[in-house]
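Field: sequence (string)
Field: structure_tokens (string)

Example rows 1 and 2, in order.
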Amino acid sequence: MIRLLRQFKKLNFAYGKFKNYLIYALGETLLVVVGILIALAINNMNAEVDKEKQFENAFSQLYTNLYCEIGFNEYQLTLLKNKLETALIEFNESDTIAGLEIPDRLAYLNSSHLQYSSNSKYIFNHLQENIVNNEQNQLMYQIGSYYSVFETWDKLVVNLDIRYFDELFEKYSLQKPSEYTDTEFSEDDTKKAIKIRQDKSYKTRLRSTINKLKDIIYITNYKLDESIAIQEYILNQ
């Protein structure tokens, strides 16, 4: 009986040691888990702060681009209106223009529409990757709608921007104007330009050029108004 009690005491002591060891092990495991959770929380906080900084930097670049786009659209609108005025004079009062001014004018009216190259879409995508709150998400939604509409309108302008005099330039061997340098015309070019004016399709092509300019002016004016509106929206936010 005494031997049995001794064995029981040994088992009880061993169980007590195991219990203490188990509590110790669980405590260490809990500390490790808490440490990992704290490290993850700190890492997430740092990542959020980093995303916030990247968002602010990219947003500043986007705002600068928007400011430049407004300036370009204002400049572009002035150029387009001047070209439209020239086209209307050519259509209604072509006899008042003579000499080297004739080929120069035809080349001017047949020149392509200026396009503004911007990396705003890339910056906008970068902004979307660094959104950290609902306020930024709403802001990006409004700006995204703005650029989405403009992308469609820009494609429309490209489709509208037809050089209606190209065939006549080729038909009468008048050199096409360069997009990058001023074209110098000769007296012989003036004779060719006069023949272009006398061509039966000239007035029709000129009328198409006038209609094209009116459409592009409408789109550019719309873009300018919307650019100013989105800029004011950003400032208000």
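Row 2 begins here:
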Amino acid sequence: MTVIGLILGSIATPFYAKWLMGTVVEIPLASIFKQIVIIVFLPMILGFITRIFLIQIVGADKYHKSLKKKFPAFSTIGVLGIVFVAMALKAKDILANPAILLSFLMPLAILYAGNFLLSTLVGKFFFEREDAIALVYGTVMRNLSIALAIAMTAFGEGQGSEIALIIAMAYIIQVQAAAWYVRFTDKIFGPSAEIPPRLRQSA
């Protein structure tokens, strides 16, 4: 669901941006597609090639049991790198006016809270537990890499660093919100119907 959404979103988003913001901001479709290929598709292709290469070298069992678990840490380092660069670009403005972070934080918090609420309600009333959880994480946890590609292209150098800072803060909120949401999943959608292995063995 995430991969399909990322691919379709990468293709459709520039046209949505042109339609929604074309009268306010000049949307260079060719440049945006180029940035999306570099920021979204290139890492995806390289990751797929890396996965096949590692499986051929160490085997599928060792890859899934040991190596696969180590990749999320590298992903986290990448996100921290984006946050660091974005903060560095706006370091002088942040030091001169720390309240600028709050002015970015409040709209992002409202956006994510609204998205979680809407997706949760739709999932709870129209889907089964597993599908509802997939819906929440598949819609709220949207891929900010697409937004970064569009922002850095459409808004230019003048506002690019500010947009990058907003997206970096969104990364922080998104990851933390996802971690908190996991704790409330059973309370919202009910416990999983699957019987834990220890109870299945005792039965």
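free_text_note (row 2): Residues 156-189 form the longest helix (34 residues).
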